[in-house]
Amino acid sequence: MKKIAFLGLGNMGGPMAANLVRAGFAVTAFDPASAAMEQARQAGCASGATAAEAVAGADAVISMLPSGAIVRDLYLGDQDAAGLLQVLAAETLIIDCSTIAADDARQLIAAAGERGIRAIDAPVSGGTAAAAAGTLSFMCGGDAAAVAAARPLLAAMGSNIFHAGPAGCGQVAKICNNMLLAIQMVGTAETLQLGVDNGLDPSVLSDIMKASSGGNWSLQKYNPYPGVMEGVPASRGYSDGFSVALMLKDLGLAMESASGSATSTPLGALARNLYQLHGGDDDTLRLDFSSIQSLFRRPVGD
Ligand code: NAD
């Protein structure tokens, strides 16, 4: 499998496609944004003028898109245009890495299967830094043979490849992980604020908790308190990370799943509400999700 089409060359897709090129795959890219296309060309991708042109002759199609509606329109078609499933050859492998609803993933995989096209859902964890470093974690849903066929491609972009279960299970794993991440980040932020408001240095408190039973990923890798950790969004004004908007999307998907399965997720619902309260304007929605720390900071002198 050598000829790859890559659709959606944004913050995640751009570096993922670049890693495929580095690993020796011939990648043809398509993104409606000209800046994204220019970066893809600089990374060594060929370019398609349309998605249909980019997928012509491809052994595999990888997509990294913002929403389920866009994924559905692209592959299944909308009122104005036929979807890519109409033009892909049987045996083509679709790997959709976008974070979308599990039901959307199942619909795509079933429709592809009816045409003899193999498809898996393979959302990722790790963010833009892992996308650039080629160390993403992939959570795959679909049949075992299709996941096995995708492995050499995924291995060029990531270091962990999990087969979560049948179609849609990758998306379920992804929203479970991100719901826990949101809960843990909110808990870490309010705890750090409690320590600071009671006279502790946030770096000292972080070191203590990292080595104690409160230790968690946010403290280890992604401290939300400004100035505690170098190289994380909190130390650059919460820029260039995983946006509040994307976290809200994932928490919305988690709440839809919880509602569908009648599962009680009180902490997930609370985390979603806190993120909604925090992301009240467009500027905040663009900030990294660890900016939830600012919800707990009190004005000086308060
Ligand atoms: P992004 O907005 O930076 O990139 C999305 C790209 O898709 C854009 O360049 C856009 O022009 C392009 N696009 C839109 N419609 C298209 C179409 N019809 N055909 C081809 N391209 C199209 O978003 P991102 O941060 O790269 O995120 C992509 C996906 O990865 C999302 O589903 C997100 O939830 C998920 N994700 C993001 C992160 C992160 O840290 N940013 C981490 C894990 C998962």
UniProtKB/TrEMBL annotation:
It catalyses: 3-hydroxy-2-methylpropanoate + NAD(+) = 2-methyl-3-oxopropanoate + NADH + H(+). Residues 1-17 form the signal peptide. Transmembrane segments: none annotated. Pfam families: NAD_binding_11 (PF14833), NAD_binding_2 (PF03446). It is an enzyme of class 1 (oxidoreductase). Residues 192-274 form the Peptidase A2 domain. Belongs to the HIBADH-related family. PANTHER family: 3-HYDROXYISOBUTYRATE DEHYDROGENASE, MITOCHONDRIAL (PTHR22981:SF7), 3-HYDROXYISOBUTYRATE DEHYDROGENASE-RELATED (PTHR22981). This is 3-hydroxyisobutyrate dehydrogenase. The gene is mmsB.
